[in-house]
Amino acid sequence: MSRRFTPKVVTANRLREGDVVYLAADDRWTPHHHEAELIEDEAHAQLRLLHAASQRLEVVGAYLADAKAGANGPEPTHFREAFRTRGPSNYFHGKQADLTSPRA
Fold it and tell me: Which is an annotated Pfam family here (predicted)?
């Protein structure tokens, strides 16, 4: 008996900065997990991964990560992926600083 397909998002690292990015349904790369395309079909997931892997001048290390539908878009289901959404852990900057700073 085959296992049921778990929904996925395509994730990679932006080639120039190394930032974590996610493939959106409109083919753009976004740094926000909740903007990623939530893929619920295994064949479609493989096609999207091939598309991501072909963008060698923009991203590296593309792979499929488990996700689930959330109120504001896809949410990670694994600790590693949740950790990647927060940005680099070596010092307080980037996404980490943006999420805690007051907005004008």
Answer: DUF2849
